[in-house]
Automatic annotation (TrEMBL):
It comes from Denticeps clupeoides. GO terms for molecular function: G protein-coupled receptor activity; odorant binding; olfactory receptor activity. Pfam families: 7tm_1. The keyword Transmembrane helix applies. The keyword Membrane applies. It is found in: Membrane. SUPFAM superfamilies: Family A G protein-coupled receptor-like (SSF81321). This is G-protein coupled receptors family 1 profile domain-containing protein. The lineage of its organism: Eukaryota, Metazoa, Chordata, Craniata, Vertebrata. It comes from the Eukaryota. The gene is LOC114802166.
Length: 312
């Protein structure tokens, strides 16, 4: 169990560092702050970074059995519920943006405007706030008043005194992710048809958009599987308590942390414009010099290999 905690902390530190670099890159360049693609990308970076940080803090507190005030626990749970939904919604919006850009290129400029972008962001956050409002209502109005002043080992299970309350929350999450997965699947099918009909000039960009949508679908599938995990964990609990604990921490890393850590790798590092600027900041503004240095070294090594005399 200690090993799982160490692995989790290492993963969190690495990907928070990557996310911070990407957030810095996004904020420094005005071209990124005014482009719909990168604005939607930032809507995955900010929530995912906050969610990873808060979830990691909550897990460490649970591991060491540190009790905190119930109201603070409620606030953390509400924030986590909000961030859990808003990031996948941003992925869906990014897939729709790719669908419009590839399948309706002539209308893309008219659809992707600052006004429609702001409306899209507002709708995303409003939809994401439904489950947090439900969690807040259940926590503050259905729980006995004496518990509101207590100190608890924070977990989402602490907020629900009846089994149906957690069942409603889980059902809402599953409905959300099934609808989002259906939208992503729709965009994938449409872009795949466009890729088959595209000319050789547009084939490369269309196939790249197709791969991006497919990777986003994989992310959403991992996020969806985290809501099946509690049922599997409950079955394992009746078999072996140690296996249950190890399985729960493994599920947290694979189905909770992993989808949040994939966004920077999928969209940030694969995007040519963003990755070039990011590498420039990583090398403190000397990426071109470092890149040319490596290229010159590789060129010399190839020349030396070709001109090396044959030894008999």
């Amino acid at each position: 169990m200690e090993n799982f905690l160490i692995i989790q902390l290492a993963v969190v530190v690495i990907f928070l560092y990557i996310n911070c670099l990407m957030i810095f890159t996004f904020l420094k360049k005005e071209a990124f702050r005014t482009d719909t693609r990168y604005i939607l990308f930032s809507q995955t970076l900010f929530p995912d970074s906050g969610l990873i940080l808060i979830a990691n803090l909550a897990l460490v507190l649970v591991y060491y059995q540190v009790a905190i005030h119930f109201v603070v626990c409620c606030l953390l749970s509400v924030i986590m519920s909000l961030l859990t939904v808003v990031s996948p919604l941003a992925l869906v919006a990014m897939c729709l943006e790719r669908y419009v850009a590839i399948c309706m290129p002539l209308r893309h400029a008219d659809i992707s405007t600052p006004r429609t972008r702001n409306i899209c962001l507002l709708i995303m956050w409003l939809i994401s706030s439904v489950i947090p409002i439900y969690v807040l209502y259940v926590s503050l109005f259905l729980i006995p008043s004496k518990l509101l002043l207590a100190y608890v080992v924070c977990s989402i299970d602490v907020l629900f005194v009846e089994s149906w309350q957690n069942l409603v929350r889980t059902t809402l999450f599953q409905m959300y992710f099934l609808v989002m997965f259906g939208i992503v699947l729709f965009t994938y099918v449409k872009i795949m048809k466009a890729a088959r009909a595209a000319s050789s000039e547009n084939k490369k960009s269309t196939n790249k958009g197709l791969r991006t949508v497919l990777l986003h679908a994989f992310q959403l599938l991992l996020s969806l599987l985290q809501f099946i995990c509690p049922y599997v964990e409950t079955s394992v609990l009746h078999i072996d308590i140690l296996l249950y604990v190890n399985l729960r921490y493994s599920d947290f890393i694979v189905f909770f942390l992993a989808p949040r850590c994939l966004s920077p790798l999928i969209y940030g590092l694969r995007d040519e414009k963003f990755s070039v600027v990011l590498r420039n900041y990583v090398f403190f503004g000397h990426y071109t010099f470092v890149s040319n240095l490596f290229n010159s070294v590789n060129s010399r090594s190839r020349v030396q290999t070709k001109t090396k005399p044959m030894v008999i």
